[in-house]
Amino acid sequence: MKKETNIDKKLDQFDQRLEEMGVRIKDANNLKVREDVFDEITLLALYKLVHKKWFSVLGGSISTGKEANVFYAERDGTTLAIKIYRIQTANFTTMSSYIIGDRRFSHVKKAKKELIFAWTRKEFSNLVRARDAGIAVPEPFVWDRNILIMSFLGEGEIPYPQLRNVELEDPAETYARIISIIETLYKKADLVHADLSEFNILYSDKPYLIDMGQSVTRDHPRALPFLMRDIRNVNRFFKNRCDVRNDVEIFNAVTGLDTAEP
Questions:
Q1: Topology of domain 160-255, per CATH?
Q2: Which CATH architecture does the domain made up of 7-158 adopt?
């Protein structure tokens, strides 16, 4: 018989407490992922969000990324996504490179926990900016510590597929839309996605940008190199699917600069 671990006990207690608070657990086995996801800080933040009635159903894992796990949830019949940044195993060095130089977070302490809390707030802020600029992204509702609650992009309980897994009817049209999104993000939201690729674009009736925690403002010291990397990633993906524009041509059109090579 398998010995029950400490995290199993914590999660059993977590399930019980949530149910006592009126939250229904769906697919409980999928919640039992890794100990570095549901640590004490995360559980306390979840309890706080439950008390404020931000979700009434908690489901299984939707995705596992480099720094975070995303879970399905519901609030009074509305589908949600709950993103939890892993405090124990998130890449501290990588996160620092995107936070340092962002004037919005210049006061953040270098301690790992505070950095991850700032990262969560940064993604919330970036999503608000992007939506205000008319870009299709998840709608951010609330954040607390290392947890971000946002709208769920999918049908039923199935998320929209990543762009890399979609058979596009008109690749050229989709390519043009994504290049336009990059330009709108830069000019209207004052942001560079900074990690754009076929992995963090979801596709249904149109492309949706996700994973904007690392996105930086235009005045970030590395904004332009990040922008060029985004453009090159998109061109790499589409080059065998349709005609693509020159990297530097797109870069100059987006930034208004006139450079041969940034």
A1: Transferase(Phosphotransferase); domain 1 (1.10.510)
A2: 2-Layer Sandwich (3.30)
SS3 194: coil
State the number of CA atoms in the 13 A half-sphere of 176 facing the CB: 5
Q: Where are the domain boundaries for CATH 1.10.510.10 in the chain?
A: 160-255
DSSP letter at 164 equals G
How far CA 16 is from CA of 19, 28, 75, 83, 200, in Å, comes to 5, 11, 19, 21, 34
- Residue ranges of the chain assigned to CATH 3.30.200.20: 7-158
Catalytic residue numbers? Answer: 195, 211
* Paired tokens of 151: 């709208």
Q: Which helix (H) or strand (E) holds 120?
A: helix 112-132
Residue 256 has which token pair? 């208004």
In this prediction the pTM is 0.87
Q: Retrieve residue 30's tokens.
A: 């999928």
Q: Tens-digit pLDDT profile for the chain (262 aa)?
A: 445 556 566 666 766 777 777 777 776 555 555 456 777 888 888 889 988 999 988 888 888 888 899 999 999 889 999 999 988 766 666 777 777 767 776 666 667 788 889 899 999 999 999 999 999 999 999 999 999 999 999 998 899 999 999 999 999 999 999 999 999 999 999 999 999 999 999 999 999 999 999 999 999 999 999 999 999 999 999 999 999 999 999 999 999 988 876 5
Residue that is written with structure tokens 């006592």 in the block: 20
